[in-house]
Design brief:
The protein is α+β, with helices and mostly antiparallel strands. It has one domain. A two-stranded antiparallel ribbon has the order 1-2. A hairpin with a 6-residue loop joins β1 and β2. The protein starts with 7 loop residues before the first strand and ends with a helix.
């Protein structure tokens, strides 16, 4: 699959788009944040 064809989402914290990553294969439906930093800051 080409990089441009990967699914993407918008981060709930920073509002920037991010693409699917192989490490998220099994949990893609649960991924809400683009990075650990955003995930940690979800309560701010």
């Amino acid at each position: 699959m080409k990089k441009s064809e990967l699914p993407s989402k918008i981060c709930l914290i920073c509002k920037r788009p991010f693409n699917w990553r192989k490490k998220w294969t099994d949990i893609w439906n649960d991924v809400k944040y683009c990075s650990e930093k955003c995930r940690r800051n979800k309560n701010h």
